[in-house]
Amino acid sequence: MAKKARENSERSMDPAAQAILIRADALGIGTAFTRFENMAPCTVGSGKSGMCCKNCFMGPCRITKDGQVGICGATLETIAARNLARAIASGAAAHSDHGRDLAFTLEAVAQGQAPGYAIRDVGKLWDVAQRVGVRTEGRPVNDVALDVARKALGEFGQQRGELTYLKHAPKKRYELWKKLELAPRGIDREIVDVLHRTHMGDDQDPVHILRGAIRTALGDGWGGSMWATDISDILFGTPSPKVSQVNLGVLKNNEVNILVHGHEPTLSEMIVGAVQDPELIEYAKSKGAAGICLAGICCTSNEVMMRQGIPSAGNFLHQELAILTGAVEAMVVDVQCIMQALPNLADNFHTKVITTSPKVKITGAIHMQFDEHHAMDVAKDIVRLAIDNYPNRGEIMIPDVKEDVIPGFSHEYLNYMLGGSYRGSFRPLNDAIMSGRIRGAAAIVGCNNPKVTQDKEHIDIPAELLKNDVLVVQTGCGAIAAGKFGMLLGEAAMSMAGPGLREVCEAVGIPPVLHMGSCVDNSRILTVLTQMATEGGLGEDVSDLPAVGIAPEWMSEKALSIGTYAAASGAYVLFGVESPYEFSEEVSDLISAGWEEMMGGKMEFLADPKEIVRRSLAHIDKKRADLKLPAYDPTKYGKSGDYGLQDYFDLPMEEQQAMQYGVPA
Ligand code: NFS
Ligand code: SF4
């Protein structure tokens, strides 16, 4: 039986989304929101009342009772652990393969075979080279870049030894990984290892299976993702704060609208260049458009927003809504998080969906294969096709909803911001935490999921944490959600943060929610946590820090890989929505209490956002106490959080929107 159709306000808390969902209903067009409501629930697959194994074709085996086993005899625990391990391997593969492609691009650039690209951040190249043991003194930039690219490529196919970046974790953490034999040997090798050991008839000890999965996830966080971030910075520049805008209102009613959606910055950066080509702008005008508007969706959007200030049309659940405006000439996609629904949906309008990755084709989409050796040519062809499509536009409806944002807080920029260019440092941040002005820190990351109201938990959870003087960093679709609701602006410190946090934000000149990039950029958070842990005063390992990680609306396998490497790095990670592994008490305990005992970090799944906040604050306070820091006292720095928008989220939805967007309730 299908679930019940929901009110639009239950589907999304974003007024832009709500407006488009009304339009979708009027046009009789389905979206992920309605498909979710029409989907017959599978209780076994959701983890609530059973567990399903499809690892061999004697099955599928559905385990719905205690003590029941699969045809091969596999227990509930083994099946749950194998399912989790496979999801982690898939997520790690996606992130890491993204990193590999960037390494190939860097190699081609260094060899002069990728016209249009350049090493834009030589400082970062030097920094990375030194970190991975590539000699720099007196060498030409391209030689160093080639060695760095090959060093990176080598780490994917490495068979023995360990990944280079592991040594940049706090010393205690690195030693723990060595002791527990969790240090990944090579990025690809660990992914293959998990796929092998979860094949029918292999590893059948849940603890042991998940150790393999931890090693794979560490190969993502401290390998594939970290390389992806570093090489992106080398090629396209290390992010620093930019002014930009977020939400569907960034689309223009009289310009050619092109959306880049997916993950890798390689093609989207070229499209950023192509849309500025005077010839193409003239061409757009010849078709009756006033110009060309480029915007992003999902993590590609984060990549080009934090480096080039390109606006974001929205996060994961906005991909269909953007097409439903009728105002998008082309949606250009590469890899990951691209709904197969797009080409069919686009058939209702004039929008062209263009796939570009050699790995991704979608029936009904136009394929224009991207190749870093001719990147600008491909980018210009795509822009031309979008322009040619402009005259085919029908009736459009762009919600007048957008918000200013200041994204781009890289680890490097935070150092500069806190200590200046001579004495880049985390000292002021650590001091603020030690004195109790800042109670602790939270990284809020991850997707949208139609199982919960779009963006609601991405906003409610940080709002509550800010009130409690917790500094928040965000990445991925969560960061875009925060942007939509004004949290990525300095003003948010005044209206939403507790007095201690507000004082720090004002002194340093930062928003209380820092946009740190895309999901592969969670590696930046690892670097930040490492520096906080080694700066002095907050212990000596990530597990000592008064900090948490939260994925409130997660949906992708990548999120599980991120959660696992964060936990294995010492963090307490809380997932919202629901637990796919709930039916196995043993595995649920293993990844929480079991992992905490083993490595000081853990993962928990909690459907109730209030409980997520409660446990986050309790964890932060416990870590403060363990560090012998003064207990957090909300009254110490003035009146705590009883001004401005602090009661904002207790208001009914219409009144929140009235305050946020100035529209009458
Ligand atoms: Ni992250 Fe980025 Fe968004 Fe989720 Fe998908 S875009 S890699 S997986 S949906 S946050
Ligand atoms: Fe069933 Fe075992 Fe095959 Fe899984 S591996 S489908 S539990 S027989």
Hetero groups in this structure are: FE(4)-NI(1)-S(5) cluster, iron/sulfur cluster
CATH class call of the largest domain: Alpha Beta
Task: Report mean pLDDT, rounded to a whole number.
Answer: 93
Q: Return residue spans where pLDDT drops below 50 for at least 5 consecutive residues.
A: 640-646, 659-665
β-sheet strand percentage:
5-15%
In total, the number of domains comes to 4
CATH architecture name of the largest domain? 3-Layer(aba) Sandwich
- Return the CATH topology of the largest domain: Rossmann fold
What is the first-to-last residue Cα distance?
Answer: 36 Å
What gross morphology would you assign?
Answer: globular
Radius of gyration, in angstroms, nearest whole number: 24 Å
Give the helix proportion (percent range): 40-55%
Number of strands: 16
Strand order of the largest sheet: 6-5-4-7-8-9
Given the helix and strand composition, which structural class is it?
Answer: alpha/beta
**Count of DSSP-assigned helices:** 27
Q: How can the largest sheet be summarized? A: 6 strands, parallel
